[in-house]
Structures are given as C-alpha cells and as structure tokens.
Design a protein that fits this description.
Helix content is about 80%, strand content about 0%. The protein contains 15 helices and no strands. The protein is globular, with a radius of gyration of 20 Å. Bound molecules: protoporphyrin IX containing FE (HEM). Protoporphyrin IX containing FE binds next to α2, α3, α4, α5 and α6.
Length: about 375
C-alpha cells in the first residue's frame, strides 16, 4: 500500500505542477496537498505509529483511512475544477475529517495499550492530526458561516501547512536523518519533547492571528520557527559530511527543512500589506517546490526499500537505497533553486521542480525494476 501511495503522490505532484498554469491555483494546490500528500501522510503514520508505541503492526483494514482521505482530496479537486460540483468541498472535507479522526482515535488506543511511554514523535503526529481535523472543520464551518469564509480559509491554510504537514514533517525529519546517516542522536527524543509546545503554540497563533488578529501571527511565526532552526543547527554540527554530498537522502531532507522554513518566512513577508500588493511572493508554491518535493523524494529514497520488503534488512535494501539516493545532492540543489524561484513568482521554478521530480520518478522506476528482478532470482 505505502509504495503505491508514494508513486501516486509523486505522480500527482508532477501532474499538478505541469498543469498549474491551466488549472486554477486552488485545484493544482489541492491535487498536490490533498490528493498527493494527505493520503501518503496517513499511510506513513499508520506504518510509524506501531513502531513508536512498540505494538504490533497496523491491521490491514486500516488501509481504508488513506483511501478515504484520497477520496476526500479527489472530491475537493473535482469541486475546484467543475463549478457544478461545489458540494464536493464540504463532502471532501467530511470524508477527510472522518479519516483524520479515526486515525487519531486509533493512535490514542495504541498509546493506551502499550507498556511504558511512547516515543515523543507520536505527540507530534497526534498534534498534526488535530490541526488537520480543525482545518477541515473550518471549511465546513464556512458553509454555515459564509461571512467568515475569508478568515476561515486563512485558518484552514495555516493549520494545514504549518500544522498538519509542518508538524508531521519536522518530527519525521528529526527521527529520519540520523537513520539515514547511520549515526543515532540520543538528543532526538528529549528535543522533540521540548520543542512541541513551541511548534503547536506557534501554529495556533499564526492560524488564529492570520484569520482574525494579525499581530498574533507575528509572535506565532517567531515561536514556530524555533524548532526547525534548532534542528537545522544540530544537523549541521552532527551530519555535515552527509548533508553536503552528491548522493544520498540527507541533502534532500536538509533541503526540505530549509524549504519549510523558507516558505514560512515568505508567508510572513506576504503578510506585510506593502509586500502583498506585489503578486510575486508565492509562499504556497515555495512550500510545494522547495519543501514537499525534496521531502517526499528524500524520504522515499530512504524508506521505499523497507516498505517494499519489511523485516530483516540486507544487501538488497542497501543496494536499492543507494540507487534511489544517487544524485540526491544534485536534486536537492535543483529543488532549492526551484522553490526559491517559484516562491518569488517565477513560473519556471515550478517547471524546474516538475522536471527534477520526473527525473527522480524515472530513476526510481528503473531502480525498482532492477531490485524486483534481483528479488525474483533470490526470493529469500
Ligand atoms: C480534503 C479536504 C479539503 C477541503 C474541502 C479544502 C478546501 C479548501 C478551500 C475551499 C480553500 C479556499 C480556496 C480558495 O480560496 O479559492 C482551500 C484553500 C487552501 N487549502 Fe484546502 N481543502 C482541503 C484539504 C487541504 C489539505 C489537506 C491541505 C494541505 C495539506 C490544504 C491546503 C490549502 C491551502 C494551502 C489553501 C490556500 C490556497 C491558495 O492560497 O490559493 N487543503 N482549501
């Protein structure tokens, strides 16, 4: 299921970026975020929550949740694309909020049924799911409270980007990069525990401030930026050699962290009334090209082998991981350029992001075919 969600997400990203100049902006963004990213995040959380709670792996029936989220996302994109399908917005929000609520409840049950304390990454995932549910409820609320629709849209936007995707990504990156470099960092757990209040308070202040009281958003933005800045500083101290490299997932994951911070800073610039009159500042496109693309392609390079063949890791996994990570450093540089260009209103930035992603999709397809051939020759 997870490898299929990865390929679905990467294909949706590439299609939306190439299609963005024809489709409406909201349709293209939701194809990336609601059809591509949301179901993949649900799938990834279903995989990681048992690890974080040291419980048995997720039952296969849980696969219904990413599918439900995917159906919700597809309905929203259709609603933006076809004017006669306006009902698709509340219907999509309802499906997705049901899936988010069910995953949250399942996570709480796993937490309650485990021995000892869960890994603090779980708190981040649950906070992220709560942000998503609140963001979707904001869309439902705007149906019965239309005079507040513009404010609720801003609430939805920030709870989803800084909250749902941002919190999930920061926690996952904090755990994933030391795994990629093969040098565990004992400070990851305590740091995640210490940083969560800053990230959650920052997200809520930005979201409610942007919706109803601007000055709060500035304070929130400053709080929210503390965890990624601390994480980035630690990475540069501990993992510099792997980050500044031509190959591997580490440069991509670092580019993603920088892209997350950079797009949030562009969002802050965009909130200055004088800057907002220039349509050139596009934080949403910086978020997609500079953060989502390196994040998903970097995480996929590291995790696809485990997701394809769970259990004992051996040469097959290492070889596939090497093949997926080949030229990861060059891709990271291209995504940083793409994100910076797209975020400052240059349309070629989206095109560069799409081409870089398509090259990775081709490289990944060849690597997977080779790995499957090797597996069929020695199935053990
Ligand atoms: C699945 C149910 C969802 C529904 C019904 C929904 C609905 C909406 C609506 C009605 C808007 C306002 C569009 C406009 O101003 O033209 C919007 C904006 C937005 N949504 Fe969603 N959304 C959903 C999921 C998501 C998800 C999962 C994300 C991110 C992870 C997301 C991110 C955004 C962003 C970034 C914007 C601002 C778009 C812009 O700047 O033009 N949405 N959404």
């Amino acid at each position: 299921m997870l490898p299929a969600l990865v390929f679905l997400a990467l294909t949706a990203f590439a299609a939306a970026l190439l299609w963005s100049s024809h489709a409406g902006r909201a349709a293209a963004l939701h194809l990336i975020l609601a059809v591509g990213a949301m179901p993949l995040i649900f799938g990834a959380m279903s995989h990681f929550i048992p690890v974080l709670t040291r419980t048995r792996s997720a039952p296969s029936a849980l696969a219904i949740l990413p599918v439900l989220a995917l159906a919700g996302g597809a309905l929203v994109v259709a609603a933006f694309g076809f004017p006669g399908m306006l009902w698709g917005q509340p219907a999509g929000a309802l499906l997705a909020v049901t899936a988010a609520g069910a995953l949250f409840v399942w996570s709480r049950r796993r937490r309650a049924g485990m021995l000892g304390r869960p890994h603090p990454c779980l708190d981040w995932y649950e906070a992220a799911l709560a942000c998503l549910a609140a963001a979707l409820l904001a869309i439902l609320a705007s149906v019965i409270w239309p005079q507040q629709a513009p404010a609720l849209r801003r609430l939805h936007l920030h709870l989803n980007t800084l909250g749902f995707v941002g919190l999930t990504a920061m926690a996952t990156l904090a755990v994933l990069l030391p795994t990629v470099t093969g040098r565990p960092d004992p400070q990851v757990g305590p740091r995640l525990r210490r940083d969560l209040p800053w990230a959650v308070a920052g997200t809520l202040l930005v979201a409610f401030g942007a919706a109803w009281y601007g000055p709060l958003a500035w304070i929130g933005g400053a709080l929210w930026a503390i965890p990624p800045m601390r994480l980035g500083t630690r990475w540069l101290r501990l993992h510099r050699a792997e980050i500044v490299a031509l190959h591997g997932a580490a440069p991509l994951l670092t580019a993603a962290l920088a892209g997350l911070l950079g797009s949030a800073m562009l969002g802050a610039v965009n909130a200055i009334p004088a800057a907002a009159t220039f349509h050139s500042v596009q934080p949403a496109w910086a978020f997609v090209a500079g953060f989502i693309l390196p994040l998903v392609s970097g995480a996929a390079s590291q995790l696809l082998p485990v997701w394809l063949r769970p259990g004992v890791q051996f040469g097959w996994h290492a070889r596939l991981r090497n093949d997926l990570g080949r030229y990861g450093g060059a891709r990271a540089v291209l995504f940083v350029i793409a994100g910076s260009a797209a975020g400052t209103g240059r349309e070629w930035g989206l095109l560069l992001g799409a081409v870089t992603l398509i090259l990775f999709l081709l490289q990944a397809s060849i690597a997977l075919v080779q790995a499957l051939i090797i597996q069929s020759r020695s199935p053990s």
